[in-house]
Design brief:
This protein has one helix spanning 186-192; strands spanning 4-6, 14-16, 21-28, 34-37, 40-41, 49-57, 65-70, 83-88, 95-101, 104-110, 120-126, 131-135, 138-143, 153-154, 156-159, 168-181, 195-200, 213-215, 219-220, 230-236, 246-248, 253-254, 260-268, 270-273, 288-291. By secondary structure, it is mainly β. The chain has a 7-stranded antiparallel sheet with strand order 1-4-15-7-8-9-10, with no helix packed on it. A hairpin with a 4-residue loop joins strand 2 and strand 3. 30% of the residues are buried.
Amino acid sequence: NHATRSATAANSFDIDFSSGAWKFPGGTNSGGPFIDLPDITTGQFSSGITIDFEANFGGVDNWERIIDFRRGSELNFASGLDSLFIARAGETNDLVVDAIRSGASTQCRANGALATQEMHRWTIRLTSSSCLITKDGVPVANTNQNMSLNSVTFSNNFIGKSNWTADRQFEGQIRSLRIYAGNLTETQIGAFSYKTVSYYTNGGSSIPATARARTSGELFLPTATTRTGYTFAGWYNGANTAAATKLGSAEARYTPSADVEMFAGWTANTNTVSFSGNNATSGTVSNQSIVTDA
């Protein structure tokens, strides 16, 4: 909560309505949009830290960041820098996590994990003896090393932006980023937040498979589907929408409290039928209104 969304160029930071993800266009570290988080005290992570998010790394941008947290304005390693960041390693397809304690850097790297430009779920677990990175639940890095953090206050905390000015800003999409104290299991993370939202068009045109969401927060409901003779009326919690509760309209914000199935609601169109005498010499037929399927 209380994060600040920043953009130096108008309309450069947007939401993808089909996926509910933040969209980042990349660019120089002073020119693109980013999210600025409030101070974070690291003492709460003494037993470990779990970072869970979904991201689609777009084009290759040098050292582009998912997150970059740092104590104060110090960038000199020799002066006792404390920092934590998750990034693309240079211009490679490697995902790297770097825990910097009093100027000493310890990196955990998932080689080649960013080879595909698709949305994936990433979970990173760091403790005083290990680093585990999973991609869609499958381990891509698992090392035995000290990835703990000093007990400090991180005050320069960014999503999509680096604390180092030479780095590029993130290009792609990020959604459902969560940070937990402790080394959490998949089940524990799911119990905290993840809910599955499934959509059924109820006779309408299909929606992309990617619209089915497993989210840990707020999402945007899919855009309206189409059905001949009907007007889309929103998303409901039952197939019989006349007796169901409306959950939201197309592109409305929605935060599920449990797994939910959504059904498209439809309002039958009233169609006007006009009659022409086609050069008849007498008589008329009045227009008629016909409701679809009535």
